[in-house]
Amino acid sequence: MSDYVEEMHDYSDTMKNFGKNISQMELKDKTAKQNKKLVGRYIREKYADGYSFYKIVKENKHTVRIQVITGIGDDWVIPYWGESSTINKNYALSNIQYRDELAKIFS
């Protein structure tokens, strides 16, 4: 029985950490948005039964550098991007715009 209680405690701590990490990710995203910056925003990519989340760490003229965000759930890594990648800037902008529009609808 004590093993079960210990496992539940670990699960509870894990969920608290997920919540803190998600809050941090959203705060950084909000701050970058308010400052009209792409660096600090995040994109999400559908994968398996959920999403993979990547933060934008560098902005170039036509591309952005992204890095996977971990500690927020399943921590999926997209096979074609890996842990970090350079992707088309327009794709990132479209992804962020879609997310921002959804947030407006549900606020």
Q: What order do the SSEs take from the amino end to the carboxyl end, as H and E?
A: HEEEEH
Rg estimate, integer Å: 16 Å
**Derived structural class:** alpha+beta
How much of the sequence lies in strands comes to: 25-35%
Distance between the termini: 43 Å
Low-confidence stretches: none
SS elements, strand count: 4
Helix count equals 2
Q: What's the average pLDDT?
A: 90
Query: So what's the overall shape?
Result: globular
How would you write the strand order of the largest sheet? 1-2-3-4
Proportion in helices: 40-55%
Sheet of most strands: 4 strands, antiparallel
Q: In total, how many domains does the architecture comprise? A: 1
Give the secondary structure arrangement, pairings included:
Layout lengths: L1 H33 L7 E6 L2 E10 L3 E6 L15 E5 H17 L2
Antiparallel strand pairs: 1-2, 2-3, 3-4
Verbal overview:
With 107 residues, the chain is α+β, with helices and mostly antiparallel strands. The protein has one domain. A 4-stranded antiparallel beta sheet has the order 1-2-3-4, sandwiched between helices.
Identify the notable features of this structure and list them briefly:
single chain, 107 residues, alpha+beta, 4-stranded antiparallel sheet, 2 helices
In brief, what are we looking at here?
The chain is α+β, with helices and mostly antiparallel strands. Helix content is 47%, strand content 25%. The protein has a 4-stranded antiparallel beta sheet, sandwiched between helices.
